Amino acid sequence: MHKETIEGQLTTVWAARPLVYHPVTHGSTNDLAGTLARQGAVHGTLVVTGEQQSGRGRMGRAWLCPPGANIAMSLILRPEIPMERIPLLTLIAGLSVAEAIAALLPAVAPQVRIKWPNDIVIAGRKVCGILTESVTMPEGEPACCIIGIGINILQREFPGEIAATAGSVLSQTGITISRSATVAAFCGRFEKNYDEFAQTADLAPFLPAYETRLAGTGSTVRVIEPGEAYEGTALGIDRDGCLLVRKQDGETVRVIAGDVSVRGLCGYI
Ligand code: ATP
Description:
Layout: H1 3-9, E1 19-22, H2 29-38, E2 46-49, E3 52-56, E4 62-65, E5 70-77, H3 88-104, E6 112-115, E7 119-122, E8 125-135, E9 144-152, H4 169-173, H5 179-200, H6 207-213, E10 220-225, E11 228-237, E12 243-247, E13 252-255, E14 261-264
Parallel strand pairs: 1-2
Antiparallel strand pairs: 2-5, 3-4, 5-9, 6-7, 7-8, 8-9, 10-11, 10-14, 11-12, 12-13
Bound molecules: adenosine-5'-triphosphate.
Adenosine-5'-triphosphate is lined by residues 57-58, 61-64, 118-119, 126, 129, 131, 150, 152, 161-162, 166, 261.
């Protein structure tokens, strides 16, 4: 992966313009992007690396991105939408990753699924995680957030704690796709989806596409919240990005993404 090969495939007006490429990052791309954002980096600036030595996931977890196989990237956004709608950008990013990978893999496109709220899975394994973080800006300056995305493209083996749940595009499909083409395809999809979403900050127009790709619909899931866990049937999502789960007593609850994990009863999905 090289800066020029990514730039040569970009079809965007603002996403990844500019593109900041580092072959290796010691910290996370979200941290690098946060620093650039505080220094005034424009909406759409994308930080990309092929090796991230200390990536982060949600709730203080680690994200692994070893040399030569995967992508870690962070997009700086200055969204002109109400603050409370900013977390929905995780879902827009997830849909965009899924659409981008599916477009590069037409033969297996239906297998590329979204595991609400922030993962992409292929054939039952997690190939992508997304971490959206707000950047604290000086008083009076517009809101800013960073969307961090790790995608496993070529990795064949996964270490201990993620050996049973993680996969890559290659391990799950047998197909090799280009990392730079994946970055460029994501940027194209995200820019289109973001521009539409930013008009109303409403997910309603995206629900059909999202639900087509949503993993686990109609299945029994276990919702794990801090201090509480329950089971129910996943029904889909609503226009506010909540997962709808029908509990065993018949009540349907709206699960708000945040510090929540959702698991299938027989495994990760
Ligand atoms: P959950 O899967 O419980 O819903 P999450 O989606 O919030 O958690 P993330 O924050 O997206 O998790 O990612 C961190 C977790 O992902 C880690 O705890 C680890 O289990 C797993 N993980 C870390 N690196 C990778 C990777 N390269 N590929 C797949 N999974 C990974």
